[in-house]
Amino acid sequence: MSQKRVKKPSNTAIDYSEIEDSVKECVRFIVCREGSKIPIKRSEIIKHLSTVCETPSNHTNAVIIEANKVLKRVYGFKLVQVKAKSGIQYIVVLNEECESLPSTVSDSQERRLLVATLLHIFMTAAPVKEEDMYKFLIEAGLLEDNDLASRKLLTTTFTRQMYLQYSKVGEGDLARYVFQWGERASEEVPKLFLLNKMAEAFEKTPDHWYEQYKEATEETRQNTNTS
């Protein structure tokens, strides 16, 4: 019986001088793309580096690792690999947890809409049906009945940026769309910040909502231990 030869992994280290220009270009590319908040495909990074710097594909891992170090040290950002239907994708988030919502959403109205949406999902402790979300936002004075632009922010823009997940559940007459937290929100938005906002609005202490308080403080503790 013939034996298959197992290819041993290469232990050849890449000298930084070989990839220095590629690392700089990779950082520049990521920082330029970061403003859109749209996930960056690994294939896009590979194609860009190949076109601009003629970076060999077997150097890609080393380049991305070194670029991530620069992002953390110089810009205070980090790359996070996220789930994707095909291929590998990254989002760029703050390297350290902040005590409020990062100023990545500059428009004040959009910011309030996003905070309210995430807060409602968090306090509900479950995916929120689309119609229930719109009802909540209308009652909160953040959405008008015919405000299609703001609804598109929720279903398209914030979803593409991965602040929200907007997905169909069920089949046939039972089918409906729901909102959940997206991966960027889980990385960027402190739950304790949202709970404090809730407490201020209702003149309560955050631990008034025991389950949410427990989850938020545990998240803060874990982030502190890993920082």
Automatic annotation (TrEMBL):
Residue stretches spanning the membrane: none
Q: Name one Pfam family in it.
A: MAGE
InterPro entries (UniProt xref): MAGE (IPR037445), MAGE_WH1 (IPR041898), MAGE_WH2 (IPR041899), MHD_dom (IPR002190)
GO CC annotation, single: nucleus
**Sequence ranges assigned to domain MAGE in this UniProt record:** 19-216
Which PANTHER family is this protein grouped with? MELANOMA-ASSOCIATED ANTIGEN MAGE ANTIGEN (PTHR11736), NSE3 HOMOLOG, SMC5-SMC6 COMPLEX COMPONENT (PTHR11736:SF14)
What protein is this chain from?
A: Non-structural maintenance of chromosomes element 3 homolog
Could you tell me which species this protein originates from?
A: Trichoplusia ni (Cabbage looper)
